[in-house]
Amino acid sequence: MNRKIILGSIAAFIVIAAAVAVKMIWFPSVKDEWFATSSQRLGKVPAGKVIVRPTHFPGPKSNLLAFARHDGNQWMSGRNVTFSQLMASAYDYDPGRVSLPEGAPKSNFDFLFTGSGSREPLQAAVRKKTGYIARVEERETDVLALKVVDPSAPGIKVSGPDEKPGMAPKNGRLYLTHMPLDMVAEHMGELLKMPIVNKTGLNDFYNFSLVWDSKTQREIQGGNLDPETGKKILQEWGLGLEPDRASIEMLVVKKAN
Fold first, then answer.
1. pTM for the model
2. Taking 80 as the threshold, does the pLDDT of residue 72 lie above it?
3. What is the dihedral of CA 181, 187, 193, 196, to 10 degrees?
């Protein structure tokens, strides 16, 4: 009897050990450090990782995205990002132009993509984890209209025809050269997470600058511009934002069939 018990225990141990070995080989553990907060750290993550999971980094200060170039491909990671940010990253779309359905997840996610080529593997991982897909559609939606508020403001000047696009910090300010306002509206929309359309009537290329203090730098580089900061930047340029409606292309998120 004891011999049978001993043999049975040994057999059970072998089965458990084999299961653990299989899990270690085929399902290696995910390291939190892979979800890097800088391009330098992200560049050290092993290739071929495609991960989407509920966040392991809760808290108001951990909503972060990181990007890195690796052998011509763009690697990405996100910590404690919203579902809207997750979809925008997976589909390479402006986060200010994501339309979510009722019942969309309210919780936040971590994601990691160190693949090559298209982001389809990341899209597939999002679908498997959340049950949602997305596609671009034309939609009538709420937007912010970029308009001229003070034509006499000195903060924006027409760029010369021989100037080249550029961006450089100097003496506490960030100087931007030879840029169209359509590009400014697009990038500010990404930072404010709201579609912005250019209704200034200003269609040239322009030079302008903004205060580059630690607060503004942190917000812009972190991808989350405070509306009051954005308002101050635009006021210096004689511009402002007003609520409006427009038909624009949106990344429409839907439940997968």
1. 0.69
2. no
3. 20
- Contact between 231 and 106 (Cβ < 8 Å): no
Residue 217 host element (H or E) = helix 214-222
The residue-averaged pLDDT of 217-240 equals 90
Domain spans of the chain? 32-130, 142-249
Instruction: Map residue 40 onto helix, strand or coil.
Output: helix
Question: CB-based burial of residue 251 (10 Å sphere; 0-12 exposed, 13-18 middle, 19+ buried)?
Answer: buried
DSSP 203: -
pLDDT of residue 71: 73
Pairwise CA distance, residues 97 & 194, whole Å:
7
Under 8 Å between Cβ of 207 and 163 = yes
Q: What angle do helix axes 120-130 and 83-90 make, rounded to 10 degrees?
A: 150
Nearest partner of 138 among 246, 245, 249, judged by Cα: 249
Structure tokens at 147: 């308009």
